[in-house]
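#struct-help
A.M.: can someone run this one for me? Single chain, 333 residues.
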Amino acid sequence: MEATRAHLNGDLEVGYADVLAPHIQKATAHHAEPPRWLQTWEDRRPRLLIECFAEMLGVFIYCFFGVGASAAFFLTSVAKIAGFGSLLSIGLCYGIGIILAIVICGPSSGGHLSPCYTIAFWLFKGFPAKKVPFYILSQIVGGFLGCLAVYGCYKQQFDLVSLEFAAGKLSVFTPQGPAGVLALFTNAGQELKYVFLGEFMVNLILSIGVFAILDPSNLFVSFASAPFLIALAYSAIIIAFAPNSIALNAARDIGGRMACSTVYGSKCWPGSYAALSSLTNILATLCGAFIQTTMISDTARPITNNLPDPEGPSLRAMSRVITRDTVAMEKQS
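D.P.: on it. Structure tokens below:
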């Protein structure tokens, strides 16, 4: 079916789709003719609604797998049942969740999946400012629903563990307690200045990596590998620094605290740390994006992350090189 219907304008939203956007117009294959009702819905549905739904779904998937792995590890550890998880499995499940979220939702919304990247794409990639609050709200709702869904799946086990903690007069609101599966807490004796340092450093490095991966002139990254590299970076950080009470994503943090509050009450918002965990990743991501954009990237470099040429003899056939200068020449001609 020709891509001539009114709701198609050839744009992919800013985010993971940056890797694809420069050459998306080269794709000439089209879907088979869809049913009339589907065409009508696609033509009439608000684009912002679809983008916000995609962001909500993406964060839901990311949290459902990651928090689900945390719940499996915690609940089986309390029950003294071995073989159902570890820090490694938690990191891998978060990574797999991110891969699925980007692959499923990236074509619709850009696959931001985090308020810090929505804000960074607004400042450094030209993402529309009017969409920023809607994206952030959708991401937080996705985190809330994802964490709440995990609790629903394991409710019987959570209830039993909560009774055990109450009988033993153990605190529920710690990383070692049932509330710590849904919300994030510091370990006993941790000083917030060191928690801040750890949170800032991991998010700084992660954002430099994400912006480098999404750089269309990066010779070492293909568009197909981007979700896997981003997920691998997330997994490595979780495995290496989870004991330092890192949050990484304000949507998972705030959404998880909302889910925790629904179940366990207001103690899921532990004052200064709740603010630190939800805001530090935004500051660090902006710093990392600034470093990569101004000190590492260069818009004059040739764009190398092209889509395969559908008219070429193989998937390795690549289109002509496009640079900032050639684009300017085309506009003048």
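A.M.: thanks! Confidence is low (pLDDT under 50) at residues 307-322.
D.P.: also worth noting: Residues 122 and 129 are 6 Å apart (CA to CA).
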